[in-house]
Amino acid sequence: MGEFEVPSGRFCVVHIDLIGPLPPSGGNIYCLTCIDRFSNWMEAIPLDNISADTVARAFYSNWIARFGTPHKLITDRGTQFRSETLQTLSKICGIKLQHTTAYHPALLLGFRTAIQEDNNHSIAQIVYAESLRLPGEFFSEPSIRTASEGFANNLQKQMETVGPRTTLINSCRHIFVNKDLQNCSHVFQRIDRVRKQLESPYEGPFPVIERQDKYFTINIKGKHVNVSLDRLKPAELRN
Q1: CATH (domain of 108)
Q2: How far apart are the C-alpha atoms of 46 and 18, rounded to whole Å?
Q3: Domain that holds residue 53
Q4: Would you say residue 159 lies in a domain?
Q5: What's the rounded Cα separation, in Å, for the pair 95 and 70?
Q6: Which of 4-18, 35-49, 202-216 has the lowest mean pLDDT?
Q7: Lowest-confidence pick of 60-74, 145-159, 205-219
Q8: Boundary residue ending a domain (69, 99, 128)
Q9: Helix, coil or strand: residue 42
Q10: Cβ-count burial of 69 within 10 angstroms (0-12 exposed, 13-18 middle, 19+ buried)?
Q11: Which residue, 53, 56, 90, 128, shows the most beta carbons closer than 10 Å to its own?
Q12: Shared domain check, 194 and 123
C-alpha cells in the first residue's frame, strides 16, 4: 500500500518479500520473491530458512549478482528486512532501503508472459526484448500422448491447467473493510506470520493514531506503524 515514484529504468527499484512455509522441495520450505518495479520481472528464490543472514545472502547472490545493484529496495517490516545484516549490505552496495506494509506477489510464468494493457508488451519482452517460449499445451489440445502414470503424464496434466494470466490492475482489487473501522478508537491487527498452536489470529488492541484511505497508523509498543486496512478489525472496548 502507498504511493511510489515511477522508476527511471529496469532494476532501479526492487520489491522483495518472503512466502512460506511451503510444502518441502529439495529441503526448501520458503521463497524470497523479488520484483523489478519498472518491468514487473519476478524471481522466486528457494530458501531452507528465513534467517536475516540467509535472506541477505540469497538476495545478493541471486539478484544483485545477475541484475546489478538497485537504487532502492522496498520491503515490508519483517524482522529479516529490518536486520543489521540487510542494513549493512545496503550501505555497502549503496542501496536505499524503504519499508512499507506487506504485499503478496503471485505466480511467475503467467505474469511474465501476459500482455500488459498500458504498453502492449509482456514483462519478458521488456526485460529480454523477446517473448518466452511457452509449452504448446498452453494453447491447444494435447498432441503428445503419454503413459497413464508417471512424471510425463503428471507434467502434461499440469500444463493443461495453466495458461497466460490476464494482467490485473491493482487499484481495482476489492478488499473487505469493516465499516466500524472509521469510528473505532482501537483496532486488532491480523498476524500474518505462522502462528503457534492455539495462538489467536489477531493481536492487540492498539490505539489508532491516524486514518488514511488504504491504511491506518497505529501505536504498537510506542511506535507508529502503518498497517493495511485488510489486516485490521475494530476493537470494542468496554468501560
Answers
A1: 3.30.420.10
A2: 10
A3: 13-128
A4: no
A5: 6
A6: 4-18
A7: 145-159
A8: 128
A9: strand
A10: middle
A11: 56
A12: no
**How far is residue 142 CA from its own chain's centroid?**
33
| pLDDT at 3 > cutoff 70 | no
Least trusted range by pLDDT, from 105-119, 137-151, 203-217: 137-151
In a domain, 138, yes or no: no
Q: Does any domain span residue 1?
A: no
% of residues, the chain, pLDDT over 70: 69
Grid coordinates of 144: 503428445
The pLDDT tens digits of the residues spanning 182-191 come to: 889 999 999 8
Q: How many domains does the chain have?
A: 2
DSSP lists the bridge partners of residue 119 as none
Same domain as 96, residue 18: yes
Beta-strand ranges (E) seen in 3-109 are 13-19, 30-36, 42-47, 72-75, 96-99
Per DSSP bridges, beta strands 186-190 and 96-99 are: unpaired
The CATH number linked to 223 is 2.30.30.140
Alpha helices in 69-179 (DSSP H): 84-93, 108-113, 123-128, 151-161
Question: Beta strand 232-235 with 72-75: parallel, antiparallel or unpaired?
Answer: unpaired
- The alpha-carbon radius of gyration of the chain (Å, integer) is 21
* Residue 199 and residue 100 in one domain: no
What is the DSSP secondary structure assignment for residue 31, as one 8-state letter? E
Side chain identity, residue 168: L
**Cell numbers standing for residue 60:** 545478493
The predicted-structure confidence for 61-106, as pLDDT tens digits, reads as follows 899 888 888 889 888 878 888 888 888 888 888 888 887 755 444 3
